[in-house]
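Build the 3D complex.
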Amino acid sequence: MADLTVKIKDLVLKNPVTTASGTFGFGEEFADFIDLNLLGGIFVKGLTLKPREGNDYPRMAETASGMLNAVGLQNKGIGYFISDIYPRIKDLDTEIIPNVNGSTIEEYVEVAEKLNEVEGINAIELNISCPNVKEGGMAFGVSCPSAIAVTDAIRKVYDKTLIVKLTPNVTDITEIAKGVEVAGADAVSLVNTFLAMAIDSKTRKPVLSTVTGGLSGPAIKPIALRMVWQVYHAVKIPVIGIGGIMNATDAIEFMLAGATAIQVGTANFIDPQVSVKIIEGIEAYCKEHNISSVSELTGALENR
Amino acid sequence: MADLTVKIKDLVLKNPVTTASGTFGFGEEFADFIDLNLLGGIFVKGLTLKPREGNDYPRMAETASGMLNAVGLQNKGIGYFISDIYPRIKDLDTEIIPNVNGSTIEEYVEVAEKLNEVEGINAIELNISCPNVKEGGMAFGVSCPSAIAVTDAIRKVYDKTLIVKLTPNVTDITEIAKGVEVAGADAVSLVNTFLAMAIDSKTRKPVLSTVTGGLSGPAIKPIALRMVWQVYHAVKIPVIGIGGIMNATDAIEFMLAGATAIQVGTANFIDPQVSVKIIEGIEAYCKEHNISSVSELTGALENR
Amino acid sequence: MKKIQDFRVKEYRWLNETGYLLTLYSDLKIEPVLPGNFAEIQVPGTPEVFLRRPISVFDADYENRSITFYIKVAGKGTKKLGELNQGTIVNIIYPLGNSFTVNGSKNVLVVGGGSGIAPFVLLADELKKKNIKTTFLFGARTKKEIVLTREFGRLGKVWVTTEDGSLGEQGLVTQHTVFKDILTFDKIYSCGSDPMMKAVAKIAGENRIDCEVSLENMMACGIGACLCCVTETTSGNKCVCTDGPVFNSKELAWQI
Amino acid sequence: MKKIQDFRVKEYRWLNETGYLLTLYSDLKIEPVLPGNFAEIQVPGTPEVFLRRPISVFDADYENRSITFYIKVAGKGTKKLGELNQGTIVNIIYPLGNSFTVNGSKNVLVVGGGSGIAPFVLLADELKKKNIKTTFLFGARTKKEIVLTREFGRLGKVWVTTEDGSLGEQGLVTQHTVFKDILTFDKIYSCGSDPMMKAVAKIAGENRIDCEVSLENMMACGIGACLCCVTETTSGNKCVCTDGPVFNSKELAWQI
Ligand SMILES: Cc1cc2nc3c(=O)[nH]c(=O)nc-3n(C[C@H](O)[C@H](O)[C@H](O)COP(=O)(O)OP(=O)(O)OC[C@H]3O[C@@H](n4cnc5c(N)ncnc54)[C@H](O)[C@@H]3O)c2cc1C
Ligand SMILES: Cc1cc2nc3c(=O)[nH]c(=O)nc-3n(C[C@H](O)[C@H](O)[C@H](O)COP(=O)(O)OP(=O)(O)OC[C@H]3O[C@@H](n4cnc5c(N)ncnc54)[C@H](O)[C@@H]3O)c2cc1C
Ligand SMILES: Cc1cc2nc3c(=O)[nH]c(=O)nc-3n(C[C@H](O)[C@H](O)[C@H](O)COP(=O)(O)O)c2cc1C
Ligand SMILES: Cc1cc2nc3c(=O)[nH]c(=O)nc-3n(C[C@H](O)[C@H](O)[C@H](O)COP(=O)(O)O)c2cc1C
Ligand code: FES
Ligand code: FES
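Done.
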């Protein structure tokens, strides 16, 4: 059987399959459907310093091969996560990776500082790409200087593996990736959702309370795949591939394009067991293609 | 019956439904399926100064609710269009709008100059957004100064209605739209395709000869709709909406978001009669909602 | 425990042009379903439908391993679910959400509109088991939309209102004469359109009668993972799929 | 004239595990189809398939208004087309592309592999009408993949090669003994995998025998509008869907 472990700086994942922030709750929601210990890691729901109620209803719209969400980082705050939620999931035999958010650099830093103290948490994902909040979020991720500034500030207070999550809503994603690499990111994860919109032609109104929301799902896969491929060739740090991964074939495509690991997002809603099926599918692919270590797949795209 | 005419500067379309460049050939290809005279307009295949062979095969890949193309502006050159193709279609009772391309500003200008002389052609679409050519194309459209420069140069030689076609592969599309507005564009059309990629996990190779290609189809609709809505609120010139329009409901959504007219692209491949069905659908919508002039729909999105 | 399970289409019973009962069966045992629980149904074979569709469980037959849904055609997904061939595999995640509380009441009023009557067969079964007297009040625009009155008739008295007066009293449900004696009821359950539930909740509030409503919302996951389906409550935003769909009307931040 | 037309599934005839004949019928008349023409078939009811699928016309029955395709399962679309219920509506655009030229030849060799035999029934009918002697040579990996030999047997002599020797001669088609007497043929038609057609075209070229091949390509529109399906020819890139699918092998910029 192929060796499925992958390394992202000091973070060791037992396999490259993780679940994407905001699409997998805190893992517990899926415990009835799969053995969570099988996963490479769980990127838990976005956290902020203070509790947030998120945006008004409606927050969701279905689109062709995708969906829009406008959740807006609803969460009970970093304090509640550390004191109440994390203790419930910390004994899982998988990496729990918090997704860190803020309206200001100071807020980001405070959240990261708190997480730096938590034993068992070996990495954080810095979200500078949320399109659904008025302040912070994607605003940091669309400009190179601000992406660098927030990464730099967090790097100063966070010792363990720092993953920076990039937004696809930019002209040149490699520029931002290179910026955060220089600022000290240990890895980049991409992509977050695309800023998008849905309209109800009957009522003539936007479907979402916030008018715009974030597009995810297989619709965005071809763009995400291109970005992973570009970023892989632009930086030296590992890349985590995200965007419309629905099955093992999709996951393998992302790895061939350059991803060291992948995150499964929207697919969890359609099939709560999909993450485990993807692990099995990758295993089968390795067997069929005589691959002894899954990391051989990373960037193994051949020329035409 | 509702008045379906729309105006884009001096260009009058009998209805807001046109076909997108590169997806409708020169119209003739669809003559067996629909009465071309019913269309608001036909944006014909991209033209360049010299003949171009386009990219190598394979040029196409199917994706979830979309497709990638890497045609690369294959065409017989502006001279051949004017002498051989246009005479065959000029008597159609619809607006024929050439799509103008170049590797350099000089080439763009020469093509536009030639078209300025052609009687019966009342508008051109300046394509600064093709993702499938090594030189020119999208390179002009992703930076504000170069978008302004090429628009400005063409404006100096082209007297009739000048539509500039924008790329969605940018951080802030309103910035580019405002730039070309100032440079003299009479309208903007958006969006062109998204730079994207497909991989064959069996062969481990890119599917397209060019590795990356342009994503079109319903997958991109929510992003295109958001961009049309943003640009409508940023500029005063008319906006032509493009991106994944498959039926009348989609077309109406684009109009509510701010489009004066729309282009039907990839949908023509799936149903060669779809453009006419969309016209009928818009007519029915106007009737049902007691709309006397279709232009009332433009930007009529209400607040939630 | 929540479960993901393959069922097969057993049969349809069409009630009018847009409403049908869909019965699915399974080779495996059926999980226990409480009144108010729903399922997330994967719609087979339509390019237009991406996500699962939340549908209340109408009835469950544990012996025959079958489960029934009452579905009203609202769009692409509910249309397709009405067109499947016998034997087609339908994957569902269930049972989801909380349920109506059935406790020490003596005389309850159940108010439903449209597909909102779906959870009430299971509820009424439960009420009957506990010897709680049940009165149903169903409202619709017109006669055709009033369905299953015979089935509900076995479980309690059924009143009907239609907006056009084609069946029962004319008017909105809340104008029905049963509300004249509202104080004879010690609990109200309601499911239907938001305006209807709000109007019912208002009357309940004014008369200090305990009232539970079952809400709808746009759902992506149905299991509390996406936080897309919130409703505003007196203690902040809550997920309709896990904290609901049943809420006590007092908890809701409704402007009524 | 090209036409877009609704047909219905009449019947299937499965030839082996992955190959089948699909017959569709229409209430309207069938457009005349030439040997080599293809159709763009819309695959009903699968979320995975977005574009139409190009498939050669295998046979057309003008009297009974039916049209038959020989389809090999290659992926999602061709799989789904093999699973439709009788009566399902299938929309097709046809007839598309050019056709094989049938002119003054006396003795022709028809070389096919895989789904490449699809256009040869119509071609052989035409050859027969013109009293042109026809020899078929079909190649496959193994016996199971050799189908329809009886049908083709009525139209000419049928030779077979299989790579594993389970039927006919062992080896690749181009190693078949019929090529020893290649100069007795004055025309070759070929359809199958690219390597096979190239090998056949090479032999034809070396022996100065006129050779037509039918190409495949990734197609979005099938009607010459998208320019996705080009192949390189001696006079530049040409569309397989309109300038082809049939090309004289001399025209092609093949490195053989
Ligand atoms: C907990 C719960 C229980 C439900 N129980 C039932 C039931 O027993 N029987 C029944 O017929 N319906 C029920 N519904 C409503 C049902 O989920 C929607 O009608 C269905 O999802 C619409 O899907 P569609 O593809 O047919 O419509 P679409 O084509 O997606 O949309 C058509 C219209 O329906 C609206 N809609 C879409 N999804 C929802 C949704 N999740 N909730 C409310 N409106 C929606 C859209 O805004 C649109 O206006 C329930 C909903 C919830 C949340
Ligand atoms: C003019 C023409 C005539 C054809 N005639 C026949 C026929 O008579 N019978 C038959 O069985 N097949 C025929 N084909 C091939 C057929 O079109 C493909 O097998 C089919 O489109 C694959 O679709 P899918 O959804 O099953 O496969 P997918 O799941 O889309 O892909 C599976 C594999 O098939 C390849 N493929 C996809 N589309 C094409 C295509 N257009 N051409 C070649 N390979 C493709 C993909 O690269 C992939 O490797 C013809 C193709 C052309 C261009
Ligand atoms: C409902 C929902 C909520 C999300 N919340 C977050 C979040 O809190 N933090 C974050 O970084 N990304 C969030 N995302 C983005 C996903 O993690 C992922 O980047 C995106 O959905 C693309 O992947 P997919 O196409 O596989 O879903 C959310 C996505 C969805 C659909
Ligand atoms: C095969 C193909 C070829 C295209 N060629 C051109 C072109 O020559 N010039 C241009 O401006 N846009 C071209 N486009 C982009 C379309 O005009 C349109 O902007 C895009 O496809 C999005 O619309 P859609 O989703 O409706 O297809 C092409 C698109 C496709 C699919
Ligand atoms: S639908 Fe996902 S949390 Fe309720
Ligand atoms: S498939 Fe579109 S031109 Fe041939």
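The longest helix of chain C spans residues 194-206.
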